[in-house]
Amino acid sequence: MFDDIPVDVGLVHAGERIRKNDLYVELGGPEITEKFELVKVRAPELVYDGAITIIGPDISDMVPQKKYPLGIL
């Protein structure tokens, strides 16, 4: 599932903290007032499994160590 991510992901890392200096950017952290996640119920034919749409800059275009608002729909 995570073969294309260049870091280890799994239960072995559960409970570990990510330190500020280890972040590339912070998305929707405690100092950001503009953040949300909204889940909507849709008919199955309106759901596109695996589809992702980014509105705004891609992570690679963001300024390192900066904080950004985040919305997930």
Explained architecture:
This protein is an all-beta fold and 73 residues long. The chain has a domain at 24-72. The chain has no helices and 4 strands. The protein has strands spanning 26-27, 35-37, 67-68, 70-72. Strands 1-3 form a two-stranded parallel sheet. The chain has a two-stranded parallel ribbon with strand order 2-4. It is extended.
Task: Describe, in short, the structure shown.
This protein has strands at 26-27, 35-37, 67-68, 70-72. The protein is mainly β and 73 residues long.
What value does the Rg take, in angstroms?
15 Å
Report how far apart the termini are. Answer: 22 Å
Instruction: State the helix count.
Output: 0
Uncertain residue segments: none
Query: Strand pairing plus helix content: what structural class?
Result: mainly beta
Average pLDDT number: 86
SSE arrangement, N to C: EEEE
Q: Major sheet: size, sense and barrel closure?
A: 2 strands, parallel
Number of strands: 4
Shape, principal axes of CA atoms: extended
Q: What spatial order of strands do you see in the largest sheet? A: 1-3
Estimated share of beta-strand residues = 5-15%
Please estimate the helix content.
under 10%
